């Protein structure tokens, strides 16, 4: 496939004069990066002549195969991009405009007001897109898989055109309009194959980096904040709403003693004092006037009389006289000169009533729960937890505890993923095991999507003749597969998709079936996904570690299980391999507390040796010593 040359023209008065930052242009550039290169970019005002100049220059000088314009397609007087485009194109391409409109109408009825024009000038395809970043990306996503074939037709690339026609007309594949270009190759778009002989021999999904996969997950999982009210005692691990928290009271609400001792008048200095009474924490100070040469016995946290200007700790006093029965102090001696304000907490010195104490979208831990309680909160508004479902796929899987049948293995993936989620504060629904049968999988997935926001599957995403999950998602659930392969080991076939089901956006993360691959990819992709949906901004702990053994590097970047240990001699933790790193060997994850992020092999670097320093990602706090 020939790399496509894109040009991007942002049409915006405010961006052109620097009042706003262009977000649409960079968003489109990132979207088309897997299909080609961006050769030209520019920002112009909503001026018909300026728009035409760029369209004519880029097409007539053969600077781009596809020109994308963003902005100026609306109803305002300044919106003239379609008019400028119509004046320069030689042929219209109304099908592209219609496809974008149909896709947009599924999202908002206001899309009916779009006036986008698409057409051809010489050997260049020109496409009008809306001005907002979100709308521009949505519209381009709807038509992006068709663009390579359109370019082949315009450039008269006969071989490519013939291949695409043969594929579409064979009924073995279907054009997956509405999917991201990173979803599938435009010439090998998969549908469910009818038999093993018609299955794909190569994956149609481009292999993207882990960083790009995480960026796609982050972008696709952006949503509005929805909240619920929970009791503070049940708020651990939850995320505060966007309102934040202000204190309902002063803390302390009265002048309080910091020490066990005696409330005194500081200007009385050292010497003997008559003990008027005692005040313990949790009671009001006595209605009395503290006079010179007198004091009141107080406990830590107890309110002190209004006149008191200092508290002297009990260690700096001695008993002079006790009551007749020996039970009470009548007179003491102050041994140290008191200072004004000594050991007194003033009203609101810790927290003022009405002051902000917790920022919006803060994760609630033990300290935060304490702050909420201290500020008088019994209930608190928190973001909704995503509903998560776990589903294992495979004819070979059995429930643990059953007699193991020939050719079968026990399913460990579901319980491992459910436990990992629970460890990170998320409950999940167990949807059991589904066999590699088309209708069974469709039924089970549909049942799960009725109940959850995020469906996590394991298995059925590789290249086997029974790996049906991706084509089922595309064809039966109209899912957009945002990526289907990741450049990593283990976990290459990891797949991320979204679809609209019962009017709601659903997230589908398909992990490999091998137990180690499932766990590694769950750490790398599942936890960031559910955290983003929960508005939890927790970041993984990344550090440097020193190898204690050598590693032969793989062509793909590898995430190797390891045990990090610290000692007094080394500034960095030492990384001990857990042994053979094959993706089916779950036992080697048993003691692992980190994933070593090993680089891909290059001609210059093929081996990492003992003593080399690598990047490591903590996955557990166990064995840290």
Provide a descriptive summary of the structure in words.
- A hairpin with an 8-residue loop joins β31 and β32.
- The protein folds into five domains: 4-189, MoaB/Mog-like domain (Molybdenum Cofactor Biosythetic Enzyme, Chain A); 227-250 and 350-383, Molybdopterin biosynthesis moea protein, domain 2; 256-345, Molybdopterin biosynthesis moeA protein, domain 3 (Beta Complex), CATH 2.170.190; 385-486 and 508-532, MoaB/Mog-like domain (Molybdenum Cofactor Biosythetic Enzyme, Chain A, 3-Layer(aba) Sandwich), CATH 3.40.980; 542-618, MoeA, C-terminal, domain IV (Beta-clip, Beta Barrel), CATH 2.40.340.
- Strands 2-1-3-6-5-4 form a six-stranded mixed beta sheet, with helices on both faces.
- The longest helix is centred in the last third of the chain and has 19 residues, at 515-533.
- It contains 14 helices and 35 strands.
- The protein has 625 residues and is of the alpha/beta class.
């Amino acid at each position: 496939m020939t790399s496509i040359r894109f040009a991007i023209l942002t049409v915006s008065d405010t961006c052109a004069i620097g009042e706003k930052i262009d977000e649409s242009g960079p968003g489109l550039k990132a979207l088309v990066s897997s299909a080609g290169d961006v050769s030209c970019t520019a920002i112009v005002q909503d001026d018909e002549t300026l728009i035409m100049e760029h369209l004519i220059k880029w097409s007539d000088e053969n600077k781009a195969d596809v020109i994308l314009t963003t902005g100026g397609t609306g109803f305002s007087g300044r919106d003239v991009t379609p008019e400028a485009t119509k004046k320069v194109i030689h042929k219209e391409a109304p099908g592209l405009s219609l496809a974008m409109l149909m896709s947009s109408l599924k999202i908002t009825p206001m899309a009916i007001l779009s006036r986008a024009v698409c057409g051809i000038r010489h050997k260049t395809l020109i496409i009008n897109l809306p001005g907002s970043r979100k709308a521009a990306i949505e519209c381009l996503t709807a038509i992006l898989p068709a663009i390579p074939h359109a370019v082949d037709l315009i450039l008269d690339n006969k071989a490519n055109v013939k291949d695409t026609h043969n594929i579409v007309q064979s009924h073995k594949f279907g054009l997956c309009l509405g999917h991201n270009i990173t979803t599938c190759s435009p010439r090998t778009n998969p549908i469910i194959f009818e038999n093993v002989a018609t299955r794909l021999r190569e994956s149609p999904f481009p292999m993207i980096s882990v960083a790009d996969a995480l960026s796609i997950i982050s972008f696709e999982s952006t949503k509005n904040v929805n909240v619920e009210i929970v009791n503070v005692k049940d708020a651990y691990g939850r995320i505060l709403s966007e309102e934040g928290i202000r204190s309902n009271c002063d803390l302390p609400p009265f002048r309080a003693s910091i020490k066990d001792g005696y409330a005194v008048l500081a200007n009385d200095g050292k010497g003997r004092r008559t003990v008027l009474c005692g005040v313990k924490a949790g009671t009001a100070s006595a209605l009395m006037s503290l006079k010179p040469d007198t004091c009141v016995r107080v406990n830590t946290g107890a309110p002190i009389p209004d006149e008191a200007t200092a508290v002297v700790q009990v260690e700096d006093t001695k008993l002079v006289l006790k009551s007749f029965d020996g039970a009470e102090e009548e007179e003491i001696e102050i041994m140290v000169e008191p200072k004004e304000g000594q050991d007194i907490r003033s009203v609101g010195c810790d927290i003022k009533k009405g002051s902000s104490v917790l920022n919006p979208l803060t994760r609630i831990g033990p300290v935060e729960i304490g702050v909420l309680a201290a500020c008088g909160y019994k209930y608190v508004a928190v973001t909704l937890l995503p509903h998560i479902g776990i589903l294992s796929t495979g004819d070979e899987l059995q429930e643990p505890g059953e007699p193991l049948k020939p050719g079968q293995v026990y399913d460990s993936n579901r319980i491992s993923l459910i436990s990992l989620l629970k460890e990170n504060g998320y409950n999940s629904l167990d949807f059991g095991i589904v066999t590699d049968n088309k209708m069974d999988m469709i039924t089970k997935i549909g049942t799960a999507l009725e109940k959850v926001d995020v469906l996590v599957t394991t298995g059925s995403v590789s290249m086997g003749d029974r790996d049906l999950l991706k084509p089922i998602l595309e064809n039966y659930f109209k899912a957009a597969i945002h990526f289907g392969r990741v450049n990593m080991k283990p976990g290459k076939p990891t797949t991320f998709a979204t679809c609209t089901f019962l009017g709601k956006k659903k997230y589908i993360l398909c992990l490999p079936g091998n137990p180690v691959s499932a766990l590694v990819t769950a750490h790398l992709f599942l936890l960031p996904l559910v955290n983003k949906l929960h508005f939890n901004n927790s970041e993984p702990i990344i550090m440097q570690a020193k190898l204690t053994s050598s590693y032969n590097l793989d062509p793909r970047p590898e995430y190797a299980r390891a045990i990090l240990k610290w000692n007094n001699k080394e500034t960095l933790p030492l990384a001990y391999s857990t042994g053979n790193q094959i993706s089916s060997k779950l036992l080697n994850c048993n003691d692992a507390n980190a994933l070593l992020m090993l680089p891909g092999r290059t001609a210059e670097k093929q081996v990492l040796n003992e003593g080399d320093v690598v990047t490591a990602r903590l996955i557990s706090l166990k064995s840290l010593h």
